[in-house]
Specification:
The complex is a heterodimer of chains A (about 110) and B (about 110). With about 110 residues, chain A is mainly beta. Chain A is built from no helices and eleven strands. In chain A, strands 2, 4, 5, 6, 9, 10 and 11 form a seven-stranded mixed beta sheet that branches. In chain A, strands 1-3-8-7 form a four-stranded antiparallel beta sheet, with no helix packed on it. In chain A, a hairpin with a 5-residue loop joins strand 4 and strand 5. The radius of gyration of chain A is 13 Å and the shape is globular. With about 110 residues, chain B is mainly beta. Helix content of chain B is about 0%, strand content about 55%. In chain B, strand 7 and strand 8 form a beta hairpin. The radius of gyration of chain B is 13 Å and the shape is globular. The chains are: A mainly beta (about 110), B mainly beta (about 110). The interface between A and B is medium-sized, with 29 and 26 residues.
């Protein structure tokens, strides 16, 4: 158990819909990262938040957005969903004090868009 | 453009033998490399890392080798155990950034 929790574990929705994925980092961790893993692909970095502020951005689509709340949990919002958005979405956290810190991953949310 | 490549999607090794997983990268700005292990229905778990100032790092049965001139790293598992059966991801990070760039993974199967 990494200490990072993600809800829900599974999500099935239709094209055009909007969903919200939630992540709670390990206790004390300030940084939260979101990754997407599509079929047969590596994990693609989407976005990072540090203590409530956006810190780094990857190849995140404009239809996707994220935020980190004062209690440090984070939400990833996916809107106008397309079939190709079906993937595993992982959240990771780290202390955030040093860029060399290990990132600890949650179990992921499996999104299926029909 | 895949900056971190794991060209072998799968590897099968007998228990007790050595497992060698390979990873190539293209970005010369990468200076920190990690291996993660992933079991089904779980998130990736950190295994071992290496800084570009080193060419080897060892942790128990796991050793990572880095060849900077070839932009190549490898993970050696000796001896391999059935519990090592998982997908192994290589990841890289450029200086002064938290962003990890992952390879596509190698599925290792260790059979008795």
């Amino acid at each position: 158990d990494s200490g990072v929790t993600q809800t829900p574990k599974h999500l099935i929705t239709a094209t055009g819909q909007r969903v919200t994925l939630r992540c709670s980092p390990r206790s004390g961790d300030l940084s939260v990262y979101w990754y997407q893993q599509s079929l047969d692909q590596g994990l693609q970095f989407l976005i990072q938040y540090y203590n409530g502020e956006e810190r780094a951005k990857g190849n995140i689509l404009e239809r996707f957005s994220a935020q980190q709340f004062p209690d440090l949990h984070s939400e990833l919002n996916l809107s106008s969903l397309e079939l190709g958005d079906s993937a595993l979405y992982f959240c990771a956290s780290s202390g955030g004090g040093s860029w060399r810190e290990t990132q600890y991953f949650g179990p992921g949310t499996r999104l299926l868009v029909l | 453009d895949q900056q971190v490549k794991q060209n072998s999607p799968s590897l099968s090794v007998q228990e007790g033998r050595i497992s060698i997983l390979n990873c190539d990268y293209t970005n010369s700005m990468f200076d920190y490399f990690l291996w993660y292990k992933k079991y089904p229905a779980e998130g990736p778990t950190f295994l071992i890392s290496i800084s570009s100032i080193k060419d080897k790092n060892e942790d128990g049965r796991f050793t990572v080798f880095l060849n900077k001139s070839a932009k190549h790293l490898s993970l050696h598992i000796v001896p391999s155990q059935p519990g090592d059966s998982a997908v192994y991801f290589c990841a890289a990070r450029a200086y002064n950034t938290d962003k990890l760039i992952f390879g596509t993974g190698t599925r290792l199967q260790v059979f008795p």
